[in-house]
Amino acid sequence: MTDAQSFKYIADEEVSGIRLDKVLCALSKDLSRSYIQKLISEGNVKINKKTASKASLIIDSGDVLEINVPAARLPEIMPEDIPLDIIYEDEDVIVVNKPKDMVVHPSAGHYTGTLVNALMYHCGASLSGINGILRPGIVHRIDKDTTGSVIVCKNDFSHEIIAEQLKSHSIERRYIAIAQGNIKEDNVTVDKPIGRHKTDRKRMAVDYDNGKSAVTHFRVLERFGQYTYIECKLETGRTHQIRVHLSSMGHPLLGDITYGGNNGRFKLSGQCLHAYILGFTHPRSGEYIETRAPIPEYFTRVLNGLRGGAQT
């Protein structure tokens, strides 16, 4: 359960004459308008110490607004008998080939059908607890529509060591992808910081002012004129890093509608990106282990379609 929070605002002239819910939505950027309306209807908002009766009340300059956000009860996450494509497993770690359209861990709107639900069924209580009840065992993640390797830790001992390898960039992570356009250089390194998009909080963007360091190495595997088959090696692991860096080059991923791509002539659900190789030092034995996630059907279908066309 997360703690209850209370906020107090004094309305200025800029918000005078505006509806209560719109004002609170502008002031409380982490809360959606629908959630604010719910708080108002449940009596959790006051204007000048009187409980607000409705969301449409008009605010005057100088009004004192108080909003109480009750403690949120985290949902119970249940094990689910969902088949797993296991690439490697022992008593400390498990590497899974995640399919398309599967979320790695529960979050708002996704409390069932996630990789965590499947892992809880397969591993039972044998998952590390460092990241809490919503993310047991999870040390890193890949996007819902990205396929391929995810390493999961079965105990806190392995979690701490794998997390440190991720932090020091010593884990080998290579993706294969199909980018739009013809990438002319055989090898390209993109070193551009990435941060949250300034206006669309669900997206990331290159941000030289407030972004965190992000480095991706790209190697061309095959060219198809309007498309390029590439390998992407992560040096850092920022959210949407490969997608943002390719978009910044003018070569968004095939199918990545969020970052400027399209489906071309292919019927795709999301970006054409697969976490192919994952190499790590085993937390207990110290042995280097490298796994490869089989290339999924959708990716092979696109490659075969491109190879059947005019190649340059």
Chain-wise SSE layout:
Elements: E1 5-10, H1 20-27, H2 33-41, E2 45-47, E3 50-51, E4 64-69, E5 86-89, E6 93-98, H3 115-123, E7 147-153, H4 156-167, E8 172-180, E9 187-191, E10 194-196, E11 204-206, E12 215-223, E13 227-234, H5 241-248, E14 273-281, E15 288-292, H6 297-307
Parallel strand pairs: 7-14
Antiparallel strand pairs: 1-4, 2-3, 2-4, 5-6, 6-7, 8-13, 8-14, 9-12, 10-11, 12-13, 14-15
Helix pairs in contact: 1-2
Brief overview:
With 312 residues, the protein is of the alpha+beta class. Helix content is 18%, strand content 27%.
How would you describe this protein?
With 312 residues, this protein is α+β, with helices and mostly antiparallel strands. It folds into 3 domains: 5-69, RNA-binding S4 domain (Structural Genomics Hypothetical 15.5 Kd Protein In mrcA-pckA Intergenic Region, Chain A, Roll); 75-168, Pseudouridine synthase; 169-312, 2-Layer Sandwich (Pseudouridine synthase). Helix content is 18%, strand content 27%. It has 6 helices and 15 strands. The protein is globular and about 65 Å long. The relative contact order is 0.12.
Given as residue ranges, the uncertain stretches (5+ residues, pLDDT < 50) are none
Could you give a short account of the major beta sheet?
A: 9 strands, mixed
State the helical fraction: 10-25%
The name of the CATH superfamily of the largest domain reads: Pseudouridine synthase
**C-alpha geometry:** globular
Portion of residues in beta strands equals: 25-35%
Q: How many separate helices? A: 6
The CATH architecture designation of the largest domain is 2-Layer Sandwich
What's the SSE pattern? EHHEEEEEHEHEEEEEEHEEH
The Cα radius of gyration reads 23 Å
The count of strands amounts to 15
Which quaternary structure do these chains form?
A: single chain
